[in-house]
């Protein structure tokens, strides 16, 4: 498994280095220490109760007892990353991360993921950044011993099992990851160019975490074993246990599972001087992109060093959202830019401050750069205002508490502080860093570190993508493995046969699921209250049953356009006033439309929730739809449409929807619509859609978090009670087409030079209230929905064709579809489809084994407490339950529904709802290379279309 997400995790101000922030005295006074694990001292400092122990072999353990939910997070950090790689071995630390999931002495390859899945594990993954590698999952608390058994075997006994086949397979997987996340992704090679300009040859940060094809492929089995002997030893690792456990029991089990692992020698320190740039470096890069991009980057102080916090705050002031200086100047006022991002990436060997601006079509990067320079110069001349400073600190504060909301992210935060600051309880000192920031100290940091002569400038423009020479993919090793040397055969840790037996679960737990009470307001609005005491955070989701499906004929994208305009000003607040007020609260407000509904979502501190919800109520009930803002939004949506054409997976999704629903259907278009519809949209159309569709009787307000029912009811009545439905009649959604026999075909969209093919294999699917819904979900989990599923296992873990490929049923109130999506290496496009369809045929013909059904069923049911662990997810989920027409007791009924799933019902679900003959294949890739493969695959008819879906005649 591992690294299912991008490998270089940027520490964007609120993550990692700067994830601690200002805790106001009012908030501190309300923090419920007993429930959350957080305690507040008399001085108002935020702290986390923990105990740190060290075993005799040097293994560190940090225990964070937290009984909010019956869950335990296991977060293992190995203190090694690219900073520890040898010359010519870029990407090694990340490749090793993959290998740690490839089997151990006591847990066969692929079994650990299945075991975690069957136990109800969530957030199971690993990641590598420049300074460390981590491995994590969260389990129900009665599986404490199971989690320690798995983690200890990964750390201590992977080296006994790893072989040439496992290495070759993961080299293929990682190289596919590079193709997907760097080479076939817009701006992927641009980001590499930034780091190559910042860091000289030999510096561990130069190659970014993923490394190069040549270096990844050059790694040998003896290199893997040597790296393990040096770095993957108990004295170079730390485990955080956070959640519902008894410390005395945990300590006994920790000694049992980790105490006998042998310590390694002293770990060589990572040493690399931070480069000094004394003259501006300028680089031009061409990429297969629609919109040009400007990147500016500077070397800045290492994490937690003087200046680091000040530059974090500077990042927020310059580019931390709609209220920031560069967003106002470049996106809002001049409309030169599509997006702006500014961040201090805090690292151990020296940090990087970066400005990233994506230009609007046809706009000049030189002009954008001049305006960025002007804003930096203004910050040099005049310190930021106290309001700007407090706004940045409010955002940092909210992000910190959000990191503490889940035991999994809390555990990672503690590990982060432990490695980077030497103290897992550093949150109080980190808090003090931000409290010490002043307007003048921000100005001083900008003067000292962000000088024009000290930076790298990378301008990326549309053109050819220049990649390194192709490195062949060797065939998978076959036959007898070569003999290992005595050193390679030597075991690092003692032979302990008792480790072969998987620990049994503790006493069965009552399934702890949130419940939402529905309350009808007099105007027809449904209030759903989901109590979630703990940290002082609250989330809300206002949902209306009106989405893309409700777009009038000839007006694709109108639902999304309307939703996006809600935040662009109300009858009493301008767009910028609204942005500033949201930022002042440290809140997050978003609005968007999906297939069947539209949502406005809010997350904030409890102390600011009333003010934040008042803003949500205002944008929902009193949007302005001003002409000036409409023209700005048109330009932004046209640019977003251009960006969409850059992304193979997005193109595949749009073409797939056209194929399922037919031309002209509301769902046959991108959520953005098309260029003609965007240009034709006027304020009258937006207002009409809003009046017809945003009605209290077809809406629900979900409030989840540390709010009582009485508080939720009072808020809803006072802020939404006067909302009355408009007189306009509601527009009826069109009839939904059904899958038709014989609809199968292959559609090819040419993307010359693409190193991967983006696949979407699709058909119409069942609705949410289908009687077989539970069996469908269980079947899909085993077929292609989970990491351990048959399709992903075969194409990734066995063949090495892909970084990941998954299936999904989207079961809505009125529409449903089935899709298998992922990217595969260009030269195996046909072979990947052949294997995919073989797995589908096997499930339809033979069903699943009882053990597969049990594992998939548990993965659906036992994971619910972990999946529904944050206010935002709870609010969004309960809004979705209401929108799809589920009753108030839907969550409570889930255990019985899943318990009723059997191998026979799974087989029936596969035969009924995986229409193998009707599946449509969409392939976006290099036509010259994939067309012969698809012709040989034999599925007919075969069509050629452009990125807009227009048929191309042969």
TrEMBL record:
Residues 1-28 form the signal peptide. Its EC number is 3.4.24.-. One of its GO terms (biological process) is proteolysis. It comes from the Bacteria. GO terms for molecular function: metal ion binding; peptidase activity. Pfam families: Peptidase_M16 (PF00675), Peptidase_M16_C (PF05193). Keywords: Hydrolase, Protease, Signal. It is an enzyme of class 3 (hydrolase). Residues 61-200, 537-652 form the Peptidase M16 N-terminal domain. Residues 218-395, 683-859 form the Peptidase M16 C-terminal domain. Belongs to the peptidase M16 family. This is Zinc protease. It comes from Roseateles oligotrophus.
């Amino acid at each position: 498994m591992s690294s299912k997400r991008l490998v270089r995790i940027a520490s964007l101000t609120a993550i990692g280095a700067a994830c601690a922030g200002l805790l106001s005295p009012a908030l501190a006074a309300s923090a419920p220490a007993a429930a959350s694990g957080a305690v507040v001292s008399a001085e108002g400092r935020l702290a986390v109760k923990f105990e740190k122990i060290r075993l005799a072999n040097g293994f560190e353990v940090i225990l964070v007892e937290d009984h909010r939910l019956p869950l335990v997070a296991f977060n293992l950090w190995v203190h090694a990353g690219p900073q520890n790689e040898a010359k010519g071995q870029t990407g090694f630390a990340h490749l090793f991360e993959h290998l740690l999931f490839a089997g151990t002495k006591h847990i066969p390859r692929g079994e650990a993921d299945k075991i975690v899945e069957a136990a109800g594990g969530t957030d199971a993954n690993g990641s590598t950044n420049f300074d460390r590698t981590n491995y994590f999952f969260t389990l129900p608390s009665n599986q404490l011993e199971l989690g320690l058994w798995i983690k200890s075997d990964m750390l201590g006994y992977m080296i006994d099992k790893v072989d040439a086949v496992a290495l070759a397979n993961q080299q293929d997987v990682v190289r596919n990851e590079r193709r997907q996340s760097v080479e076939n992704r817009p701006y992927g090679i641009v980001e590499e160019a930034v780091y190559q300009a910042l860091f000289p040859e030999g510096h561990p940060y130069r190659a970014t975490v993923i490394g190069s094809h040549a270096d990844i492929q050059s790694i040998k089995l003896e290199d893997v074993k040597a790296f393990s002997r040096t770095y993957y030893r108990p004295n170079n690792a730390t485990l955080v246990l956070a959640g519902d456990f008894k410390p005395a029991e945990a300590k006994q089990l920790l000694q049992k599972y980790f105490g006998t692992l042998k310590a390694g020698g002293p770990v060589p320190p990572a040493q690399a001087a931070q480069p000094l740039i004394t003259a501006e470096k300028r680089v031009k890069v061409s990429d297969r992109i629609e919109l040009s991009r400007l990147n500016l980057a500077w070397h800045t102080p290492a994490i937690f060093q003087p200046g680091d916090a000040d530059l974090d705050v500077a990042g927020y002031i310059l580019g931390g959202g709609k209220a920031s200086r560069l967003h106002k100047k470049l996106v809002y006022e001049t409309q030169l830019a599509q997006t702006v991002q500014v961040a201090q990436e805090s690292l151990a060997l020296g940090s990087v401050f970066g400005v990233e601006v994506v230009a609007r079509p046809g706009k000049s990067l030189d002009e954008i750069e001049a305006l960025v320079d002007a804003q930096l110069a203004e910050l040099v001349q005049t310190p930021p205002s106290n309001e700007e400073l407090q706004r940045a600190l409010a955002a940092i504060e909210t992000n910190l508490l959000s990191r503490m909301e889940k035991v999994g992210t809390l555990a990672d935060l503690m590990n982060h502080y432990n490695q980077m600051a030497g103290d897992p309880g550093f949150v109080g000192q980190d808090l003090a860093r931000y409290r010490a920031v002043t307007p003048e100290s921000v100005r001083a940091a900008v003067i000292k570190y962000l000088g024009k002569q000290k930076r790298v400038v990378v301008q990326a423009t549309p053109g050819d993508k220049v990649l390194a020479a192709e490195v062949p993919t060797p065939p998978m090793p076959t036959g007898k493995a070569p003999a290992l040397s005595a050193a390679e055969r030597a075991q690092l840790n003692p032979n302990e046969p008792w480790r072969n037996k998987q620990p049994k679960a503790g006493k069965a737990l009552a399934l702890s699921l949130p419940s939402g009470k529905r309350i009808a307001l007099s105007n027809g609005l449904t209030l759903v209250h989901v109590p979630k005491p703990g940290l002082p955070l609250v989330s809300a989701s206002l949902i209306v049953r009106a989405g893309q499906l409700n777009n009038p004929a000839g007006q694709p994208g109108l639902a999304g356009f309307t939703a996006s305009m809600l935040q662009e000003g109300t009858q009493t607040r301008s767009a910028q006033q609204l942005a500033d007020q949201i930022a002042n609260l440290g809140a997050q407000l978003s609005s968007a439309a999906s297939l069947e509904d539209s949502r406005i979502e809010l997350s904030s501190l409890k102390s600011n929730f009333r003010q934040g919800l008042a803003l949500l109520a205002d944008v929902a009930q009193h949007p302005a739809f001003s002409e000036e803002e409409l023209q700005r939004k048109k330009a932004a949506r046209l640019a977003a449409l251009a960006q969409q054409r850059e992304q193979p997976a997005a193109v595949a999704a749009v073409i797939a929807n056209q194929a399922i629903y037919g031309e002209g259907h509301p769902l046959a278009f991108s959520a953005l619509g098309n260029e003609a519809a965007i240009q034709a949209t006027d304020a009258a159309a937006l207002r009409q859609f809003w009046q017809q569709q945003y009605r209290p009787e077809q809406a629900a307000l979900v409030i989840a978090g540390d709010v009582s029912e009485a508080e939720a009811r009072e808020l809803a009545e006072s802020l939404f009670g006067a909302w009355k439905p408009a007189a306009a009649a509601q527009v009826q959604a069109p009839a939904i087409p059904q899958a038709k026999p014989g609809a199968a075909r292959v559609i090819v969209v040419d993307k010359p030079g693409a190193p991967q093919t983006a696949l979407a294999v699709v058909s119409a699917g069942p609705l949410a209230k289908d009687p077989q819904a539970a069996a469908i979900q269980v079947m899909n989990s085993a077929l292609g929905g989970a990491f351990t599923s048959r399709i992903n296992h075969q194409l990734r873990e066995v063949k090495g064709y892909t970084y990941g490929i998954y299936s999904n049923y989207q079961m809505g109130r009125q529409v449903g579809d089935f899709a298998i999506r992922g990217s595969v290496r260009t030269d195996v496009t046909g072979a990947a489809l052949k294997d995919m369809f073989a797995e589908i045929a096997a499930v339809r013909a033979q069903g699943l084994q009882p053990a597969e059904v049990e594992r998939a069923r548990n993965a659906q049911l036992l994971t619910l407490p972990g999946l529904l662990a944050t206010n935002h997810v709870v609010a969004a989920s309960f809004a979705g339950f209401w929108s799809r027409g589920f009753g108030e007791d839907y969550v409570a009924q889930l255990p019985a529904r899943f318990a009723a799933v059997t191998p026979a019902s799974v087989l029936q679900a596969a035969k009924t709802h995986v229409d193998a003959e009707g599946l449509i294949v969409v392939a976006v890739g290099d036509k010259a290379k994939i067309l012969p493969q698809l012709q040989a695959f034999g599925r007919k008819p075969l069509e050629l279309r452009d990125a807009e879906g227009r048929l191309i005649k042969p």
